Amino acid sequence: MTVMTDEAAAAFADSILAKQAAWIRRHRPRYQTIMTSDEATGRGNLAFALALRFDLPAGRAIALLKEAPELDGVEAILAWVDSIPTRPPLEIVSQ
Q1: How far apart are alpha carbons 13 and 9 in whole angstroms?
Q2: What tens digit of pLDDT does each residue of 8-32 get?
Q3: Residues 25-49, buried b or exposed e (16+ Cβ, 10 A)?
Q4: How far does the chain reach from its first CA to its final CA, in angstroms?
Q5: What is the CA radius of gyration of the chain?
């Protein structure tokens, strides 16, 4: 088992926080666009699940919000969002 020194642990924590802050700065506008759209009104869980699909541009996520059927419960929302094909398909990316 490897034991980290206090200095190494602090540096590691700082790097994680820096990466998280950079991620938030980079993705906040897209997230806010999706979550504050008229289509997200009353469909917060679905909007959030679509916002987590980073392969979907904000406009596509909003269009999907408009087209989505009424989904009952988190499991149904996640299953529906998971059924949306990736762009490009994962099979192509992994080759």
Answers
A1: 6
A2: 878 877 787 777 777 667 778 888 8
A3: eeeeebbebbeebebbeebeebbeb
A4: 35
A5: 18
